[in-house]
Amino acid sequence: MTPIVNIEKLRVTFGKGTDAAVKDVSFAINPGETVCVVGESGSGKSVTSLSLMRLVEFGGGTIVDGRMTLQRDDGPIDLAQADGDTMRDIRGDEIGMIFQEPMTSLNPVFTIERQLTDGLRVHRGMTGQAARERALELLRDVRIPEPERRLKQYPHELSGGMRQRVVIAIAMACEPRLLIADEPTTALDVTIQAEILALINRLKRETGMAVMFITHDMAVVAQIADRVVVMYRGDVVEEGPVADIFANPKADYTKALLAAVPRLGEMRGKAAPEPMRLVGDTSAPKPLTPQDHPEPLLEVKNLTTYFPVKGGPLRRHVANVHAVEDVTFTLNKGETLSLVGESGCGKSSCGRSILRLVEPTSGSVIVDRKDILAANHRDLRLLRRQMQMIFQDPFASLNPYMRLSAQVAEPLRNFGLASGSALQDRVAGLFDRVELPRDYMRRFPHELSGGQRQRIAIARALAVSPKLIIADEAVSALDVSVQAQVLNLMMELQADLGLSFLFISHDMAVVERISHHVAVMYLGRIVEIGPRAAIFENPQHSYTKSLMQAVPIADPAKRKLEGDLNFRPIPSPMHPLSYAPAQSLYDTVAAGHLVLRDIERTTDANP
Amino acid sequence: MAYLLNRLLSVLLTLFLISVITFAVTNILPGDVAMMIMGTQSNPEALAGLRESLGLNDPLIVQYGRWIGGLLTGDWGRSLVFKEAIGPLIAQKAVASGVIVVMSMAIALACAIPLGVWAAINRDRWQDSTASTSALIGVSLPDFFWGIMLILLFARYLGWFPSSGFVHPADDFLGAIRHAFLPSLALGLGLMAHLTRMTRSTMIGILGQEFIRVARAKGLAEREVVWSYGLRNAIGPVITVAGLQVGYLFGSIIVVESLFNYTGMGWLTYQALLNRDIPLIQSTVFVIAAVVMLTNLFVDLLYMLIDPRIRMA
């Protein structure tokens, strides 16, 4: 079989004197095949795909060597040598492309119809009614409800998942023989990700096009790939059928990548969280010893947080966003409780409400027998010493103009806990603690990698010896291998210092790996809470079940089909001022395992 | 609709505040209308009589009410210097200034947008530095310098345009344009510089967006990607700045109109200030403020047409 595209010895550089972003990449894509190009940030996977479209030049890249042979109807052509007009003919017609960010992939000032029919006009000369009909057909193909209405709408009127469907429809408009998908589900919630993956699979089957799918996520690879190309620092390190890659990885890097991926279900039957196995570490992971008589550290009761919505000419308070609705849970000393849910479920607002970074509307938060919500300004400051927070984006949460040592020392200075050489010693000790070399103390944040920056954020949180750390998506922005290291560090600190973590995450597999207890949030409420094993092995609430079902599993034998997935869109958490929410009432399934009773229509995920 | 209502309310409120401030400031200034009319050497009794008949002894709030009532009913009072009714006087001068304000803005936008886009698509190359340097020169040199240079070049040496005077467009449209051209160009050069830089930086931001990449991936020609996908998104901030610059323009026309002996609002305001013509000062300041407010309201409405996200809000 002649491949649709054959890439040979591709080399791409950005600017003079820099290392090549893609060094020597060769692989082929056959008709009707899905090839996953997988790798971590900086592996050159996106640059390879942009080179194929010759879009890399617009970002300052240069293809310095190699061939990219595309089979066209009138014979093969080398894309690396093709002129601008030829490339414009190919783009959008023979090769379609979809990108990572559905929120920014569509032009905000043009209607969906205009954006869907652009390609048809340019490549097929279709305009007016004919183009509109084809656009409607495309919207039906990608299963967008009410397609006629969508044509007249603008991107901001559509949800993220729907926008990504529109982007896919745009790429499919001229029935390309190759679809390039560059991390198309990374920015989406897990249920929407599952739907988009199933959609791409179905379109591929129906049209016979080939798919080049770029991702960093091995679980997604297992869901969609026929063949896998593993890239590392600009080179292909391994290539093969998906089953072989997962069963018998040859390259060390592939092995490391696979080891670092937490897999949903692999913690079955284990009593306590377990560190991840890292590259070169052959010893079996040591489980953390569970505590016999856990003592409560954080008790949250009926916590409720509303955000006011202003409207009308006088900016009056017209409605409330019910971000956190009657949430109750307890976190024990030395344990990890995870809050999981999709975007907008209130998990982050809950974490912030506990620290009073946002003011809760009602409820109580007791830390070590002191009520945070009742504390005055001075007491709150002292109470915050016991509670620290780590955020998702370590670059945004560090001050770019301050040396790292000063940033780690800041909380110590703030509370007057140390000064002079004692302070320097404490800071050096903290750098040791998070396993960063001491000569990093004089550096600035931009000189560090993402994982190192997150270690600094952890060191800063540890500086005042807190009892509780709230980690809000603390590892979500990190590459999997780095994520594994940071998670292991957090577990080690927990074992050594007796820390409690409130771990806020959307990633079910990570949560399963590290938690003692899990709370699933939906529309501001906890719909199910209990010991980790109970939630993952015996989920009761329909929302917990659908969330579990949506998680891609890093095993090619466990694929999901579009028909298996039937998620309902999440209703709005915004309510008029007169709205009186019902209390959260729970049924006890087993000791400590509670499930929200179906108290009202709006909190019901799947009746 | 709520947005529109909001904006209209805020415009009305601002106009009210402006009227209060203008009225208050002109009353705080030393000397009053009666003194202006009769001269400083006049008979104190006659002065007192005039004050009484002009209503200057009434409480300020009553005087303000009378003034604002006049403004609303079309009785704007009489100018002390020109001995004419203020309403028709301002109407005539406003046409003169309107011509150069519109023309200078049109010249500025017509040059700045292509130049800014050109600089943005050739970012960090010679085209960009050429555009940026000329923009910087435009900002750095004052309007009267450009005015003098333009008079020397186009009026004195080339003789293409008249160097001074005003012709009413109703009498001779082409003549009006010819007379307004040099003052408009002098003003436009200063405006253009700001707008070029604004267009460039907004356009660079827009061209880095993912939807531009998507447009290219569809196979659209670069021309369409830049001028349709890109500019449609970049134009909003540019016209917003242009709207704000109308306020700045009314400051500049005082100098430029004097230089070209072009009798418009700038010239009128200057005469009013020079002669302490209090009723005229109040009216001109209020009219200029109102024009600036309404221009910005117009820009906001235009923004609504351009950007569907604001239409919904």
Describe this structure in words.
The complex is a heterodimer of chains A (607) and B (313). Chain A has 607 residues and is α/β, with parallel strands linked by helices. Chain A folds into three domains: 1-94 and 179-260, P-loop containing nucleotide triphosphate hydrolases (Rossmann fold); 104-173, no CATH class; 296-368 and 499-607, Rossmann fold, CATH 3.40.50. Chain A is built from 19 helices and 23 strands. In chain A, the strands form four sheets. In chain A, strands 16-17-18-13-19-20-23-22 form an eight-stranded mixed β-sheet, with helices on both faces. A six-stranded mixed β-sheet of chain A has the order 6-7-8-3-9-10, sandwiched between helices. In chain A, helix 7 packs across helix 19 (542-550). In chain A, 47% of the residues are buried. Residues 601-607 of chain A have low confidence and may be disordered. Chain B is mostly helical. Chain B has helices at residues 2-28, 33-38, 44-54, 60-73, 86-121, 126-140, 143-157, 173-207, 210-217, 222-259, 265-274, 278-306, 308-312. Chain B folds into two domains: 2-73, no CATH class; 93-276 and 285-312, MetI-like fold (Orthogonal Bundle), CATH 1.10.3720.10. The radius of gyration of chain B is 24 Å and the shape is globular. The longest helix of chain B is centred in the last third of the chain and has 38 residues, at 222-259. In chain B, helix 5 (86-121) packs antiparallel against helix 6 (126-140), helix 5 runs parallel beside helix 8 (173-207) and helix 10 (222-259) packs antiparallel against helix 12. Chain A: It is a peripheral membrane protein. Chain A: This is Glutathione import ATP-binding protein GsiA. Chain A: It holds the Pfam family ABC_tran. Chain A: Part of the ABC transporter complex GsiABCD involved in glutathione import. Responsible for energy coupling to the transport system. Chain A: Its main location: membrane. Chain B: Keywords: Cell membrane, Membrane, Transmembrane, Transmembrane helix, Transport.
